Amino acid sequence: MASARRCSPEVTKAVGRSPQHASANRKVPSCTACGEDTRRTRCDSADANRPARARTHPDCPSKATGHGVAHFRSRIWFSGLSARGLLYREASRRRIMKVPLSERATLMRNEVWTAASSWGAAGSAYERFSEHFADALHHCAQRLAPRARESILDVATGTGWTARLLASRAATVSGVDYSEELITAAKAIARDRRLGIAFEVGDAHDLPYADHSFDGVCSTFGVIFASDPELAARELGRVCRPRGRLALAVWAKDCVLATMAREVFTRFSPPPSDPPPPSPYAWGSEDRMRELLEPAFDLYFERGCSVLREPDGDSVWRLWEQAHGLTVTRLARLDDASKSAFRDAFIDFHERFRTPVGIAMPRDYIVAVGTRR
Ligand SMILES: C[S@@+](CC[C@H](N)C(=O)[O-])C[C@H]1O[C@@H](n2cnc3c(N)ncnc32)[C@H](O)[C@@H]1O
């Protein structure tokens, strides 16, 4: 129980029920480089909950050669689940390494990096954006109903609001997002709150986990942004174990945000690619979600409405221009006249929802609850 002694009571409470943390605590962990007892290292909650990451003495002289068989075995020893993840990632890395360097660079630059860095442009400020629909995130986490000892994945986690809600329900939680900036922020927030969540950078089209790794899979307004919805939906099914559960929160197809995207945002966006990328709002109907998810899941749907409340249109604008990465990126590409026209159109749109006490904009969403066949 060496590591547990070094955890604060909050950390032990937060992560102590996770199988990984429990097993890391049960045995005396050996350094992945030299094989000696690592009890003199500090127990960091995120690391304790993430046994796939090597634990070494910070000053271990064997560290430089720590990539041999002993190192790999020791990583597997910490957790069966994460060992499967490791093996999968190793296979995936080998596949990618076969692609010629020039193609890899192009793929990275065009398909992943641009979109991911746009989302990440607001950095940790994105957290304020999630706060504005926190009630819907609660709804979705509640319907996933994670239990102690279950392993749960939050796909396209952003700064991890939903992942933290899930972790507070005593499950072992992983969160993945393709934006490095948002994952860095998610890790910092979870660390501050002493929550042991395993955040990592990864693409929803190629999740860095083995088949059937999770008891539950969740995504709140995240996977809807995948550029290949069919592939992303298949990935949700692949990483969920048979009889495992799914909970997705998606904006309804005809919700006010879809109208705003059409009436305001498209006027200030570059011309779309040909064919245009799929709309995230296309996920927002039961028919479409059945098409995407029913091959793997039995589904049930529940509707909800999250009301945006702010004093006026200008405060909503400030939220978007500071906290919404895609808007930050879009604004950086506009000249001053277009920026000002964008701002005016955005504020006018929100002022339609003025009440005597401020703006109240109802945003309809659907939560899809699934059971893996
Ligand atoms: C509207 S935010 C939702 C974030 C968070 N789930 C929440 O509820 O606040 C959309 C998120 O999807 C992520 N995302 C979009 N496409 C992705 C992909 N292909 N793989 C991983 N993450 C993706 C973005 O980086 C962003 O964090």
Descriptive notes:
With 373 residues, the protein is an alpha/beta fold. It folds into 2 domains: 1-64, no CATH class; 122-372, Vaccinia Virus protein VP39 (Rossmann fold, 3-Layer(aba) Sandwich). The protein has helices spanning 2-6, 9-15, 19-26, 45-48, 69-78, 80-98, 101-119, 126-131, 134-144, 161-167, 180-192, 229-239, 256-263, 286-293, 313-323, 325-332, 336-351; strands spanning 151-155, 172-177, 197-201, 214-220, 240-251, 297-310, 354-355, 358-372. Strands 1, 2, 3, 4, 5, 6, 7 and 8 form an 8-stranded mixed sheet that branches. Helix 5 packs across helix 6. Bound molecules: S-adenosylmethionine (SAM). S-adenosylmethionine (SAM) is lined by residues 116, 119, 130, 137, 156-158, 161-162, 177-179, 182, 203-205, 220-222, 225-226.
Number of DSSP helical runs:
17
Total of domains: 2
Helix content: 40-55%
Q: Mean of residue pLDDT? A: 78
Task: Spell out which ligands are present.
Answer: S-adenosylmethionine
So what's the overall shape? globular
CATH first level of the largest domain: Alpha Beta
Secondary structure: number of strands = 8
Percent range for β-strand residues: 15-25%
**Distance between the ends:** 39 Å
CATH superfamily of the largest domain: Vaccinia Virus protein VP39
CATH architecture descriptor text of the largest domain: 3-Layer(aba) Sandwich
Q: CATH topology of the largest domain, what is it called?
A: Rossmann fold
N to C succession of SSEs: HHHHHHHHHEHEHEEHEHHEHHHEE
- Classification by helices and strands: alpha/beta
Sheet of most strands: 8 strands, mixed
Instruction: Determine Rg (CA atoms, Å).
Output: 22 Å
